[in-house]
Amino acid sequence: MKFSELAGAGEAPDVEVVAELRGVTKEYPGAVTALGGVDLTITAGELVAIVGPSGSGKSTLLHILGTLDRPTAGTVALAGHEVGELSDRQVSALRARHIGFVFQSFHLVPAATALENVTEGLRYSGVARGERRRRARAALERVGLRERAEHKPHALSGGQQQRVAIARAVVGQPKLLLADEPTGALDSVSGKAVMELLHELNAEGATIAVITHDRELAESLPRLVRILDGHVVEDTRPPARGGAR
Ligand code: ADP
């Protein structure tokens, strides 16, 4: 089953802007400027690597893209919504509906089975319980773990746990999948399998941004955005209609 068939959604138009950051600045107390005016546009269907040395602002950028944090200045638009105009409650709803997260350390619920963990990805979707389980099963099958649905995380390998986490992140068909060092805790074979899965999901329509330290991995992705000291210093594919600068 294809990603785009999981919830029966149609094809996205070619140049749908999924995320648009303009002049995004993030300052922390103590005069730390984590981001110093970032412009970044991600359109539907992209697979973007975000790279940069430790402390360059990648996590801050991911948190702002994922609406987990708000910028000190600048604007963020996600799935057509100006995040700055929304209440915290509205932002939470936007995040639940449109953003999927994958973390280096999986963040699965240890006491829950793989299927229950994936079902959690539809918790705020308004989808009825039986349908949530059906979609969760389909997502698990999509990541190659049909036979592991009743296993708890401790009975799965790291690579399998990350695939469960990916199934959880995509089961609600988010507009944007954000992955923070998704292969960082995996051996190279499992890491490769996880990256292949992300490539496949992208080929089936998912829009994905991946933070990585891994140069080789980053260079294998169609677009690379390099961050240094809170600034975008390289973007291998600046979108044609990247907004006002
Ligand atoms: P990266 O993910 O590239 O390692 P970060 O976004 O985590 O970079 O950090 C960028 C800068 O912001 C660093 O100088 C870091 O020390 C600082 N920083 C990050 N989070 C906080 C915070 N909560 N409070 C103060 N400074 C922070």
General description of the model:
With 245 residues, this protein is α/β, with parallel strands linked by helices. It has one domain (3-235): Rossmann fold (3-Layer(aba) Sandwich), CATH 3.40.50. It contains seven helices and ten strands. It has helices at residues 58-65, 88-98, 114-120, 129-142, 158-170, 188-203, 215-219, and strands spanning 17-28, 32-43, 47-51, 73-78, 81-82, 99-103, 176-180, 208-211, 223-228, 231-235. The chain has a six-stranded mixed β-sheet, sandwiched between helices. A four-stranded antiparallel β-sheet has the order 2-1-4-5, with helices on one face. A hairpin with a 2-residue loop joins strand 4 (73-78) and strand 5. The longest helix has 16 residues, at 188-203. The structure holds adenosine-5'-diphosphate (ADP). Adenosine-5'-diphosphate (ADP) binds at residues 28, 32, 34, 52, 54-60.
